[in-house]
Amino acid sequence: MPTQPYVIEVAPTEYPMTYEDGFKTTFWQDFTTAEKFGIDSVKDTYKRAFAEYKSQYRYLTDLVITLNYKIWKYCKTDEALARVYDALWREADAYACDNLKGDELEYFYRTTD
Questions:
Q1: pLDDT tens, 30-80?
Q2: What's the number of CA atoms in the CB half-sphere (13 Å) around residue 38?
Q3: Cα 42 vs. chain centroid, distance in angstroms?
Q4: What's the rounded Cα separation, in Å, for the pair 27 and 29?
Q5: Are 74 and 82 in contact (CB under 8 A)?
Q6: Contact assessment for residue 27 and residue 62, using Cβ atoms and an 8 Å cutoff
């Protein structure tokens, strides 16, 4: 009798990233709170966070990571929300790739790899 492979899916309920130097943002909690108020609230939270932190490479990196984790968290349970997070992630990721330079871009790639 052939055995079926199994997949263990993990959707983090708490912020999954830790940094060696203790750096931390509130992005995970901010988006989790926004989700309770709907997609427009998620978009608004992104708009405010991106506007404020796009010039700060560590915050921008953490924002991109948070958005990516949120895509995976909702891809099987809330397709509409996952698509919103995907669009926001694509925008933030493209901005980082196009605008970060030198050590900041290296940090971004190393951290998001």
A1: 999 999 999 999 999 999 999 999 999 999 999 999 999 999 999 999 999
A2: 1
A3: 12
A4: 5
A5: yes
A6: yes
CA distance 45 to 99: 22
DSSP 54-99: TTSHHHHHHHHHHHHHHHHHHTTT-HHHHHHHHHHHHHHHHHHHHH
The label of the residue with tokens 């984790």 reads 69
Quote the DSSP letter at residue 110.
Answer: H
Contacts of 30 (CB under 8 A, 6+ apart): 45, 49
For the ranges 7-11, 18-22, 54-58, the one whose mean pLDDT is highest: 54-58
Which residue in this structure is represented by tokens 């993990």? Answer: 10
pTM for the full model? 0.85
- One-letter amino acid at 37 equals F
